[in-house]
Amino acid sequence: MERLNKLLGGLFGVACGDALGATLEFLSQEEARKTYGYLKDIIGRGHWKLKPGQVTDDTMMTLCVAGGILENPECPIESIGNRFVKWYNSDPKDIGMTCELAIKKYIKTSNWKEASFYVHHISKGRTAGNGTIMRCIPVALYYRDYSKMIDISRLQSKMTHYDEKAADACVLYNTVIYKYLNEETKEGTITEAIGSSEDYKYVMNMKKEELIPSGYVVDTLRCALWCFMNNSNLEDTICEAANLCGDADTVAAVAGGIAGTYYGYDSIPERWKNKIEVKDKLMSIGEKINSTYN
Ligand SMILES: [Mg+2]
Q1: Is 58 labeled as ligand-binding?
Q2: Any known ligand binding at 57?
Q3: pLDDT at residue 30 above 70?
Q4: Residue 253 has pLDDT above 70, yes or no
Q5: How many structural domains are present in the chain?
Q6: What are 254-278's pLDDT values in tens digits?
Q7: CA of 93 to the centre of ligand 1 (A)
Q8: Residue 22 CA to ligand 1 centre (angstroms)
Q9: Which GO terms describe its molecular function (predicted)?
Q10: CA-based angle 138:128:31, to the nearest 5?
Q11: Looking at residue 178, which CATH number applies to its domain?
Q12: Ligand 1: distance of its center to the CA of 294 in Å?
């Protein structure tokens, strides 16, 4: 498969998971079924009263990470951070608490390390949320040097989330994305990336009822990996992830990033792709990243 097809698949997979899942965010499965049935379309509404195709912080922060990397690939953190601040100042209606506190602190201190340590302190060590895995896919799509890719995956996580579990999850996820971009096998890639990790090694033995679609990054990544491995196409993967409910937009965005890179842009239903409000931006970012390969 063409690299551009995979690149765009990853970016649009995140956006489609986000836009579809956002309708179900904060609902229990029971509440969601009553109101929406088993949701398979991007219809907006939900807690954030979205328009169909409107995306949330997951996709908007992904665009910030991609833009920062393209501006300064060698040391992208400040460029990424400037975009976080600009987005924060645009008064987005949805922003995760850890990201919000860290960006606010950065505005006062101009120091991301200090900002994320401060948030870790005031939140009593609870900074292993899914706010960095949801935005980190451009790192794996851009860097060809594997160790540079791992470094930047960690560094972008540490800007807002001090906890190592958040950075570890970004590394696992981006390792999978990187390998799929290079045409490696579906199951072997996941097994190898999980390795002997205590947090993820039993994920394929879990029953669906044991999945917890929470904002804790370990729960989120387990849900995404499980849905990807237990479905054979992108549409079913994203629908199953979103319909777990809870932190549905991020669970589906992470599952969508993996499935999109593996199955490619062509596998994403037209009725989803056409609705995404930032589709032109995603397309242009994918093409810019792709052009650096030539
Ligand atoms: Mg969101």
Answers
A1: yes
A2: yes
A3: yes
A4: yes
A5: 1
A6: 999 999 999 999 999 999 999 999 9
A7: 10
A8: 7
A9: ADP-ribosyl-[dinitrogen reductase] hydrolase activity; metal ion binding
A10: 90
A11: 1.10.4080.10
A12: 34
Q: Do residues 133 and 170 lie in contact, with contact meaning Cβ atoms separated by under 8 Å?
A: yes
Q: Scanning the structure block, which residue is given the tokens 């850890």?
A: 98
Identify the pLDDT of residue 26.
Answer: 94
56 annotated as ligand-binding: yes
Question: Is 91 assigned to a binding site?
Answer: no
Cα(25) to ligand 1 centroid in Å equals 8
Q: How far is the CA of 131 from the centre of ligand 1 (A)?
A: 9
Angle between helices 3-21 and 57-71 (to 10 degrees): 150
Q: pLDDT digit string (tens) for 160-200?
A: 999 999 999 999 999 999 999 998 999 999 999 999 999 99
Q: How far is the CA of 134 from the centre of ligand 1 (A)?
A: 8
Measure Cα distances from 280 to 169, 176, 285 in Å: 29, 26, 9
Phi-psi domain of 91 (left: phi exceeds 0; alpha: psi -120 through 50; beta: other): left
> d(Cα 221, Cα 200) in Å, to the nearest integer?
8
- 247 marked ligand binding residue: yes
**Residue 61: C-alpha distances to residues 23, 40, 138 (Å):** 19, 24, 10
Contact 30, 225 (CB under 8 A): no
Whole-number Å distance, alpha carbon 293 to ligand 1 midpoint, is 31
| Tally of residues, the chain | 294
Residue 244 has pLDDT above 70, yes or no: yes
**d(CA 21, ligand 1 centre) in Å:** 9
Q: Is-above-0.90 flag for pTM?
A: yes
Write out the residue range of the structural domain in which residue 9 sits.
3-291
What gap in Å lies between CA 63 and CA 83, rounded to an integer?
9
What percentage of the chain has pLDDT greater than the value 90? 98
For residue 36, report the distance from its CA to the centre of ligand 1, in Å.
19
